[in-house]
Design goal:
This protein is mainly α. It is built from five helices and four strands, in the order βββαααααβ. The protein has helices at about 30-45, 45-55, 60-65, 75-95, 100-105; strands spanning about 5, 20-25, 25-30, 110-115. The protein is globular and about 45 Å long.
Length: about 120
């Protein structure tokens, strides 16, 4: 029987908010959420917010700071086309850590479902 693995909260190892150092694009971040939000700021030309995100103590703080990304009207159309590819890349980095990779592999072929109200 194939069962779902449901998870919720930043303390769960499958969460993008789970504390794990990520090194991407020559920069370090505190978790995959922070890396993703950093890249969103850089991609949209907001270096000031990117640096603040990089200094964030948590993924939650990084996500909050990302709301300040300075763009003319909205995120650039090219970001909207690239964001999924970038999220896949940052999640892949998270599971390079051997202890997290083992825990992910231990889920087997179960479907992974994050229980979030935001619909992300």
């Amino acid at each position: 029987m194939n069962m779902d693995v449901k998870f919720k909260g930043r303390g769960y190892f499958l969460s993008n908010f789970y504390p794990c150092k990520t090194h991407m694009w020559g920069e370090n971040n505190s978790c995959t959420e922070a890396a993703y939000q950093y890249k969103k700021a850089i991609f949209n030309g907001d270096v000031i917010t990117a640096r603040k995100i990089q200094a964030a103590r948590s993924g939650l703080q990084a996500k909050y700071l990302s709301r300040c990304i300075m763009v003319k009207r909205e995120l650039t159309p090219s970001w909207m086309l690239q964001r999924r590819r970038i999220m896949y890349a940052v999640v892949a980095v998270q599971f390079r850590e051997s202890h997290l990779r083992k825990r992910l592999l231990d889920t087997g072929n179960h479907r992974l479902i994050e229980n979030v109200a935001s619909g992300d």
